[in-house]
Design brief:
Elements (H helix, E strand, L loop, with lengths): L6 E3 L2 E4 L3 H12 L4 E5 L3 H6 L5 E2 L1 H9 L4 H6 L1 E3 L1 E6 L2 E6 L8 E3 L2 H15 L2 E4 L2 E6 L7 E6 L2 E6 L2 E4 L17 E16 L9 E4 L5 E7 L2 E8 L10 H11 L2 H4 L7 E15 L2 E2 L2 E3 L5 E2 L7 H22 L3 H28 L7 H16 L1 H12 L4
Parallel strand pairs: 1-12, 2-3, 2-13, 3-9, 6-15, 13-20
Antiparallel strand pairs: 4-8, 5-8, 6-7, 10-11, 11-12, 14-17, 14-18, 15-16, 16-17, 18-21, 19-20
Bound molecules: adenosine-5-diphosphoribose (APR) and P-hydroxybenzoic acid.
Length: 396
Amino acid sequence: MKAKNQNLKAQVVIIGGGPAGLLLSQILMNANIEVITLETRTRNHVLSRIRAGVIEYGSMELLKNAGVGERLLSEGIKHSGFLISSQNKDFRIDLTLAGGKSVYVYGQTEITTDLYKANDKLGATVIHGAKNVSIQGLTTKNPQVSFEISGKPYHIICDYVAGCDGSKGVSKNFIPKEKMTVHKTQYPYSWLGILSKTKPAHDELIYASHERGFALASMRNENLSRYYLQTTNHENISDWPDEKIWDELKKRLPNEFSTTIEIGESIEKSFTGLRSIVVEPMQWERLFLAGDAAHIMPPTGAKGLNLAFSDIHYLANAFIDFYQKGSSNSLNQYSERALARVWQTIRFSKWMTNLLHTPAKINSIERKLQLLELQELSDSILARKALAENYVGVPY
Ligand code: APR
Ligand code: PHB
């Protein structure tokens, strides 16, 4: 969309055209709320990002109700369980223990593609190449969002601003430092992810705990596999040629899968550092943060995208309450409601990360307790049920 007029107006301005911003735009457009989304990168760049691929039951429902679930339901792979392996033995986590719910394996790239297509169909205004985005007047009734396109200045007068600009975004910087607490923790490991046009190792995900380090066997479809290896935080892609990755995966995955794994050329290879970050509060005056702009967690529990979507569930409904019923209660309670689910999810992601990853300098007691917890999961249906409830997603 080319912005013709330099002075624009909207009820809500969304900063960030990733999954969070696009879903918020889609739901607000469906509710006839005037929204403009500013995205700093090109659409192709946004769609080129390879990210996670597990969609919670609640996210699937949210996308379906927003009119964006059709391809997910037809092309996404419904999963009712996954394997956890340790010491060459594996056991299955039956996700239907969590009230019969399942998850869908469907790449975030596909979700973002579907969201862009749905927004286009509604005639949503998504402005790409927006640079030097800044916000003024958040303590007034009509904040302004300024930005430039190819050096030309634009201003949008609005009622509210949604900061959906991810972990490197600017919106959180407009909350006064004294009003904001940023909680941070860094894990001593990273994930090396690869995408390969190969048959997945198994028809369900395999989370492998191993002395050499964690490995995850996932997929995008029956001919596209996604694998991850735990590495240290100080490695380079050049340290990991494809051959070394496949050898390491074979060592860490259970024998019954590593002997049959199909190897092939990687079509994408990247590192992700494991960390948790939470910005509190997730709102200040007329600014509301959602998604990675407000929180980051290790990908072990496949929660990043899903938590962004539960934020959007709360925030979109709060805007609808305001514009359709004239009530600000949900807007005033947004941060408290969203953070309750954020902290539950941070806790689960930390627990699952510590359960499955092998610290470089693990002491014997820690390793013993880790193996004991894995054994308890294997033995106890109640322990597996608790994991399943968190994995499919705690209620909104
Ligand atoms: N102005 C406009 N857009 C910006 C700015 C800015 N100053 N800074 C960042 N952006 C854009 C980024 O280019 C990106 O497209 O905001 C978007 C934020 O999208 P994401 O980082 O994908 O975050 P979010 O929409 O919250 O989705 C969370 O995406 O990256 C994954 O792991 C993450 O699964 C999680 C999900
Ligand atoms: C993925 O397929 O990218 C994926 C799956 C499960 C996770 C993390 C990533 O926990």
